[in-house]
Amino acid sequence: MRVLLATHLYPPRHTAGVEVFASVTAAHVADAGHEVVVVTTEKDIALPDLSTREREHGGLRVIELINNLFATDFEETWRRTAIDRVLAGVLDEVRPDVVHVHHLLYLSAGLLDLCSERGIPVVMTIHDFWLGCARFGQLLHPDGSRCDHVNKARCGTCLPSFKWKQTDLERRVARGISAVRSATGLDVSGAARRLAGGGASGRGGGWTPPSAEEALRFEQGVGRRLADLVPTVRRCVDRVLLPARFMVPWFEELGLDRARLHVETTGVDWEGAARHPRVERAPGAPVRVLFLGSLVPHKAPHLLLEAWAKLPEAIRAAARLRILGPDQHQPGYVEALRSTARPMGVTVGGALGREEVREEMARTDLLVTPSQWTEIRPLVMLEAFAAGARVVATDLGGMAELVADGLPGSLFPEGEVGGLRTALEAEIQTALGEGESGGAARGPSPRFRPWSEVSSALIEHYDRAVRGDRAPIG
To answer: How far apart, in whole angstroms, are the C-alpha atoms of residue 357 and residue 334?
Structure first.
């Protein structure tokens, strides 16, 4: 079987949850004897917008579309004719038996129509709420509050502050940089980024409501977006896969056909964890507490620091907190984190590679995931579980679902510093009472399957889509 995998971003430069899911399962599908080709995007202002290039990753062919965000109309954030032309060429050259869509961000919903026109079945994994929420699918308003549902009027007050395209100046600079590279071979884009500097630093407090006219314009735009995207998925996608059970009613409410929704959870990297044996905590040594994730407000490392500051001194002295993760997105916010963390002796570090993540998990007693957005099924929590650590997480979405499924740990109410402090104190005291990390021997189970089993299930979904069989697996 020839599979075309379509996703917004792909490793090695991008290693968030969607990218890990896509790349790990793609490798397993290829190992099972199927041909897998990846089409993805990359922003590279040193190259012409909407040009393509090819590379290899993990033995797979990767076709990259350069998308420098030169959209001029809001509609082009989900459907763009120029991108459709590139994708049509990819489909006609690869001639896949099935297309597996992981994300359409930076691509185009036109891909689904192109597949339908060619009679190519489509399997789509929905990793977030982008189908309903144009702001990266995070259901977060710039005023700092969370959205439970799609409310077009509320979207109208949100999206005017969302940077969904490059400015005219940024486009002119990018085209100049591309011309320099074409003429001389020199890539000066890094210097341009350094000169630009800056970056948002707040947590939503700086939001200014738009004018009523602008809010109405975006409200109407969201209406057009929903009226296009949802029917397109209903019409063109054969099987919709959801990584968590709590997502089913949300997407039913959005308008997707319940008969085509199938829960297919993410996998656990048991093999990777086995390569890094657990480093047990010596008696009397500090309890090892870790935050691992992007250092951005919705991941809420600031909330963890606030709770950490409120712990009794004896508890804080008996534990060591490390905050690690990609720190390039919001430099001002990261600098504020470091200023808060420094007096408490808390380490705030940068991003880790895949093997470094596994090594860090092997010497962690407690992972804290205080996210203030509706995480789907955080891979970082599953990696901690495989390594023998416990977790403290927000009682929300896939985080709560993982704990309900048996992942050892505690939950606290969303955004509550006091609740997080209480959970931290209880978990640290439990670890201190055990004398060492107390990591239990764990292994695969029906709720925590290895990636190989998840990939086998995906192949079954592909087979059924090709046969036109919409019945659930198992």
So the answer is: 20
CB neighbours of residue 245 within 10 Å: 14
Distance separating alpha carbons of residues 291 and 307, to the nearest angstrom: 13
Is the model's pLDDT at 172 over the cut of 70?
A: no
Q: What is the mean pLDDT of residues 204-215?
A: 84
Residues in contact with 212: Cβ distance below 8 Å, sequence separation at least 6, in sequence order:
none
Structure tokens at 75: 């509609």
As for how many domains the chain has, the answer is 2
Domain that holds residue 296: 270-434
Q: What is the CATH number of the domain that holds 124?
A: 3.40.50.2000
Distance CA 105, CA 101 (A): 11
Greater model confidence, 188 or 348: 348
Rounded Cα distance, 107 and 463, in Å: 25
Predicted confidence at residue 196, as pLDDT, reads 47
Residue pair 214/160 in contact (Cβ under 8 Å)? The answer is yes
pTM recorded for the entire structure: 0.89
Q: Where are the beta strands (DSSP E) in 13-139?
A: 35-42, 52-57, 60-66, 98-101, 122-125
Mean pLDDT, residues 166-179 taken together: 58
H or E element in which residue 273 lies: helix 270-274
DSSP 344: G
What is the average pLDDT value for the chain, to the nearest integer? 90
In a domain, 175, yes or no: no
Distance (Å, whole) CA 426 – CA 415? 18
Q: Please tell me the distance from the alpha carbon of residue 424 to that of residue 289, in angstroms, as a whole number.
A: 9
Q: What are 377-397's pLDDT values in tens digits?
A: 999 999 999 999 999 999 999
Residue 189 lies in a domain: no
Query: Looking at the domain assignment, is residue 402 inside a domain?
Result: yes
295 and 416 inside one domain: yes
187/378: higher pLDDT: 378
